């Protein structure tokens, strides 16, 4: 068996009824060309890459602080009845220190308006009452964006897409969306990064007499141990990173079972290969390093130094056995979270 490192991560019911018309929004926007729309105007925030930071600072420490301009054309907001309570906020539940969680564990984000206009110096959510049925807005504002440590940090990431929004009529109509452009805002803690020591491993499983050793479908041979070794460094003293792995069936990328397919050059039939993480069978997943990738499994937390990941492999009988050679290939993709 050869293991290589990845290059990288019924029934139909007919109902007859008279349905009510879809409700029309109580507010709408007219852009600078007088076009009417019911979707939020975008105020774009530039992407940026702040310096790396220590993950070992106390909880509550501001890790990144940046004043960013947003850009967007002016527009008018019209509502049936008064615009009422307008709120600037971010979706999701707010956590400690006026922050919202990011996709980097232990890091929260908060923002407030600076420069000129309303809401200066107030961490979002910020609200005000607009007692008129229409009002002019502009996407050109300045925002102070801060990233705050809210818990243990073991990996980096980025913040992209919508970072906040403006809502009218007591959160019923989103009229402005503040979005980070391009690659987003990078979050880079000084935690260990790892390299695989050997990018290709050959794991010999040996010769067997299948009908004697594997008398029935599902029977397995003795597992042969092997290990994947990572060299990790670059982190601050005491910092850690969590490592995860996904194994992918090279011969059948869609395989999500725990049996590795035989490679096309194999001449034996009725056999497969299983890989174990301790006593747990490993199932195969897509070649991806994204967090939560299907069948991704935890392989340990490491500081600077060497991390050894012990695994083992064995034959499994899958059907009527025909003697011959067996080759199976899996790639592995590491994820640091």
Automatic annotation (TrEMBL):
Domain MrkD-like receptor binding intervals: 54-160
Organism superkingdom: Bacteria
Protein's cellular compartments: Fimbrium
Gene Ontology, cellular component aspect: pilus
Domain Fimbrial-type adhesion: 189-337
Xref: Gene3D superfamilies: 2.60.40.3310, Fimbrial-type adhesion domain
Record-level GO BP terms: cell adhesion involved in single-species biofilm formation
Pfam families according to UniProt: Fimbrial, MrkDrd
Record's keyword terms, sorted: Fimbrium, Signal
Record protein name field: Type 1 fimbrial protein
Organism in which the protein naturally occurs: Burkholderia cenocepacia
């Amino acid at each position: 068996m050869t293991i290589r490192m990845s290059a990288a991560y019924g029934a139909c019911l007919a109902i007859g009824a008279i349905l009510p018309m879809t409700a029309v929004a109580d507010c709408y926007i007219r852009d600078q060309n007088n076009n009417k729309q019911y979707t939020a105007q975008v105020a774009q925030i530039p992407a940026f890459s702040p310096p790396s930071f220590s993950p070992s600072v106390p909880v509550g420490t501001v890790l990144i602080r940046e004043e960013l301009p947003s850009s967007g054309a002016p527009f008018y907001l019209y509502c049936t009845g008064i615009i009422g309570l307008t709120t600037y906020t971010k979706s999701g539940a707010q956590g400690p220190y006026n922050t919202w969680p990011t996709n980097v564990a232990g890091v929260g984000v908060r923002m407030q308006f600076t420069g000129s206009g309303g809401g200066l110096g107030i961490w979002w959510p910020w609200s005000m009452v607009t007692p008129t049925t229409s009002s002019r807005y502009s996407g050109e504002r300045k925002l102070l964006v801060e990233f705050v440590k809210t818990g243990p940090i073991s990996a980096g990431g980025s913040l992209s897409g919508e970072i906040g929004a403006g809502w009218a009529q007591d959160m019923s109509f989103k009229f402005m969306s503040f979005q980070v452009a391009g690659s987003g805002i990078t979050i880079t803690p000084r935690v260990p990064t790892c390299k695989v020591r050997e990018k290709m491993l050959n794991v010999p499983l040996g010769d067997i007499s299948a009908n004697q050793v594997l008398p029935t479908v599902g029977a397995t041979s003795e597992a042969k141990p092997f290990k994947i070794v990572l060299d990790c460094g670059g982190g601050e003293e005491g910092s850690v990173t969590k490592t995860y792995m996904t194994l992918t069936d090279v011969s059948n990328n869609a395989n999500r079972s725990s049996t590795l397919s035989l490679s096309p050059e194999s001449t034996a039939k009725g056999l497969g290969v299983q890989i174990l993480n301790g006593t747990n069978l490993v199932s195969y997943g897509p070649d991806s390093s994204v967090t939560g990738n299907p069948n991704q499994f935890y392989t340990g937390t490491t500081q600077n130094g060497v991390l050894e990941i012990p695994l083992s492999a064995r034959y499994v009988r899958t059907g009527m056995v025909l003697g011959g050679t067996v080759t199976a290939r899996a790639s592995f993709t590491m994820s640091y979270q």
